[in-house]
Design a protein that fits this description.
rod-shaped; about 180 residues; mainly alpha
Length: about 180
């Protein structure tokens, strides 16, 4: 990353314009800096009284505040989610965040990468009870009364293959290895 010009050079360019009577363009040519650079230095000096450079870099991504954090944690307990889905959900709540902010949030909260395509409804007691009833009933069905439906070409990509969910158990959240 480039470093800012020295304070000494900045002061000499500004002094040449302010006290020496040269134009910004002439001062820039004399000191070998860009014309727009000299213009910006003189403007900065006139506005702030200093030629010191402003802060370079240091972008800090937004973090999720407490009131939104509580809502997000509740939302992630309800059902599986995708990062882009959470970004959209927060946008509906008038909070603009980006994908990277959500990525940081799910890692900070130790949410894991979704690895199974099993329906979460299977864990519900009413669904488990009905499945047990169906399993018992299957033996009573005469095979000649059944119709075979070939679903080879049916669409199976309805559920998102990638997303995030709370990890069951206490294993590591690192999904890469």
């Amino acid at each position: 990353m480039a470093k800012p010009y020295s304070i000494d050079l900045r002061e000499r360019v500004v002094a040449t314009v302010e006290k020496g009577g040269l134009s910004r363009r002439q001062a820039a040519l004399q000191f070998g800096v860009g014309i727009s650079t000299a213009i910006n230095w003189v403007r900065r000096f006139r506005e702030t009284g200093s030629v010191a450079p402003g802060q370079m870099g240091g972008h800090k991504p937004k973090s999720i505040r407490d009131e939104h954090r509580a809502w997000l944690l509740e939302r992630t307990r309800e059902k599986d989610f995708t990062l882009r889905g959470l970004v959209a959900d927060l946008a509906e709540r008038s909070l603009k965040v980006d994908y990277r902010t959500m990525w940081n949030f799910v890692h900070a909260e130790k949410l894991s990468f979704k690895k199974t395509v099993l329906a979460s409804e299977q864990d519900r007691p009413d669904v488990a009870r009905r499945h047990g009833q169906w399993t018992k009933y299957q033996g009573r069905i005469a095979p000649e009364h059944l119709v075979f439906i070939d679903e080879t070409w049916s669409k199976t990509n309805m559920a998102p293959l990638r997303g995030w969910a709370r990890r069951k158990g206490g294993r590591s959240t690192d999904h890469y290895g």
